[in-house]
Amino acid sequence: MPIPQFPQHSRGWDDLSEQMSSFRERDVDWRNSRTGLYVFHAGDDVLEVGAKAYNMYHVENGLGLKTAFPSLNRMYGDVIANGLALFGAAEGGGDMSSGGTESIFLAVKSCRDWSVAQGRDVQGATIVAPYSAHPAFDKAAHYLGLEVVRVPVAADHRADLDAMTAAVTDRTIMLVGSAPCYPYGVIDPITELGVLAQKNDLWLHVDACVGGYFLPFLRTIYDEQGLALEPFDFRVDGVRSISADLHKYGFAPKAASTVFYRSADEHAHQHFAFKDWPCGEMTTPTASGSRPGGAIAGAWAVQNYLGQEGYTERARQVVAAQKAIVEGARQVGLQPLHDSALPILALATPKGQMGKIWSGLRKQGWYLGGVQEPEALHMMVQPNHLKVAQELVEALGSAVAGSQTEKDPGGPRYA
Ligand SMILES: Cc1ncc(COP(=O)(O)O)c(C=O)c1O
């Protein structure tokens, strides 16, 4: 195909927006909450606040937040302070980043450079992680000259403590636990991993990219019911860093995540400084140079719009939606891998059927995720799913009933 020419003439906004809307024709139907991944919908009001705030600061640049934009610096500081408070930090520090992958990269880099400062040889050093950990750890290790040792999970799909212990060698610098992990939606035994980390002087990172801005509000609901939510954050000794995504259950516009450290010393290893060029010293805290002011403003506005009350209310909607979907799914023969109120739902499908059921749902306008081991349909349940839970159950019923004649596309690809 010939390479198209660069646009020659200016075009008006009406013309552009019409064409851009037409580009969306084959996109997934997230506005009607028919997606189980990629987007997070906590109501049109929340989307509007995020979009307005993003737009208000879409030109400002986070690179200059300490120099040119006290406005961004104020909001950035608030978002970090809010996270530290939420995760029970006594001191420490943190930063905003572009997403979970960058937050994890930054935590791994900090751990590596902190280990060097302790006099360790880190060439080819290992990160011991459960098989269920997000690939972002492998990406970080690939960039940073480290190696991830993935350890099979226990029968309950949580990190297997004995297997993790056995995988630790004198080359290990980091342990990973997720709260919860993406594939199964279960929280790893963070307290026990904290003990293992302390015993071996290892850095424990908790990947709370999904749960970071959900679990603290689920805890409020549990407290009302006299239930206990296991600790997953800095309240657990041995946890040195946490990644938590604002653009997931923080309901902020993308690209927005946070990474936190127990101490300022550990945090300091994240930063990169350079001065041997014509413009003098340049210190950047994250992997990016320029950073979207809109993402900082959007996260600040949504956090303040919702507050503890709003997030707790949205968590209640997630719990109710999850319950309704699970009850309906059971009636059409699909069992959840785990009984819990956590937002990630994995519905076990009969052997060889996941791709077919997934495809049947896709044809009815639904876009869910999938797990291969064991086979399961997968979704991150969101507040707006409460309105469509019954419709999803009906679609599941038809997809299960029609799966014998459905072609198997091999399940969904994530990217
Ligand atoms: C547990 C977990 N960690 C990390 C990530 C990576 O986040 P992002 O896609 O924002 O880079 C995800 C994404 O779904 C996740 O579920």
Largest sheet properties: 7 strands, mixed
Q: Outline, from the CA principal axes? A: globular
Give the spatial strand order of the biggest sheet.
1-7-6-5-4-2-3
CATH class descriptor name of the largest domain: Alpha Beta
Summarize the topology.
Elements: H1 13-23, H2 44-56, H3 70-86, E1 93-97, H4 100-117, E2 126-130, H5 136-144, E3 147-151, H6 161-167, E4 172-178, H7 190-199, E5 203-207, H8 215-225, E6 239-245, E7 257-261, H9 264-268, E8 272-274, E9 282-284, H10 293-331, E10 335-336, E11 344-348, H11 354-363, E12 369-371, E13 376-380, H12 385-401
Parallel strand pairs: 2-3, 2-4, 4-5, 5-6
Antiparallel strand pairs: 1-7, 6-7, 8-9, 10-11, 11-13, 12-13
Helix pairs in contact: 2-10, 3-10, 4-5, 8-10, 10-12, 11-12
Bound molecules: pyridoxal-5'-phosphate (PLP).
